[in-house]
Amino acid sequence: MMEISEDSLFQSVKEIIRQSREKVFRIANSTLLLTYWQIGQLIVEDEQQGKERAEYGKQTLKNLSKKLSLEFGKGFDESNLRNMRSFYQAFPICDALRHELSWTHYRLLIRLDHIDKMNYYINEAVQNNWNYRDLKRQINSLAYERGVLEHKKSPAENIHSILKDPYIFEFLGLTPDQKFSEKEIETAIIDHIQKFLLEFGKGFAFVARQQHISTDTSDFYIDLVFYNYILKCFVIIDLKTGELSHQDIGQIDMYVRMYDDLKRGEGDNPTIGILLCSEKDETIVKYSVLNDKNNLFASKYLLYLPKEEELKEIIDQDRIRFELDQNNNKQP
């Protein structure tokens, strides 16, 4: 019989315990979700039988909360019972529940006002393994609204289903009222690469910083390089702290062409280039190659999380410009 080292034994036992705990958690979580869903169903059905629903329902929840709290302790106050009612109303089909998500996830999701928005956050949370804090940040930063409009028209995975505008980098810890160099922002991104990838979108893996590209006559350094395993292509990023210029656009266009020629593998799709800029002149974007190519993009970034109304205004302005450009492109 083959001898097992102490370390191998420890690792084997550790893995068994880890798998066991994960299994227990999944079972407990599924049971909790089902319990709360069934309680919500009973509350809704009971209220619908009342003659004066609002007053009747309010008094019923108050009395029910008192009795359940006396019997079972915490977790059954009026607020949580209302959450259970909303939970059932938002997800009337029990089989549609995603058991990868916890009750704390669902307490955030039931506050959303649109089914498409809810489905977006559910799918993203499951696919990207978002915890409660991750989901809360994405909702508070209006990740759904910041997505490029075309991603809402088709479920197919493409660059438009991943891009955002603007990006929000408050997690970098850089004071928005100070000026930072491109190198300083780049360094902060590397220091917070996990949070950056969460904000940037799904499917990205970090490849290189200041990647050296050499030709027969010149040397170039690309700020940040990623690979997206969903799109199966390299994504290169050029950081800009000032206003976007034609020179910047020409540079990213050149970088993409060079990367395709010198770095792109046989099974890779064409490289995508993204200009991340603190200020974006929409007129320059409209009358440049950015408006004609489907592999070059410019997105604005913010070093702070704006108030919701301010962020909505930025998004609405971008949406209006986008729709005007689309309509103009359709005209003969």
UniProtKB/TrEMBL annotation:
PANTHER family: NUCLEASE YHCG-RELATED, UNCHARACTERIZED PROTEIN YHCG-RELATED. Residues 13-146 form the YhcG N-terminal domain. It comes from the Bacteria. InterPro entries: PD-DEXK-like_domain, tRNA_endonuc-like_dom_sf, YhcG_C, YhcG_N. GO terms for molecular function: nucleic acid binding. This is DUF1016 domain-containing protein. Residues 161-313 form the YhcG PDDEXK nuclease domain. The lineage of its organism: Bacteria, Pseudomonadati, Bacteroidota, Flavobacteriia, Flavobacteriales. Pfam families: DUF1016_N, YhcG_C.
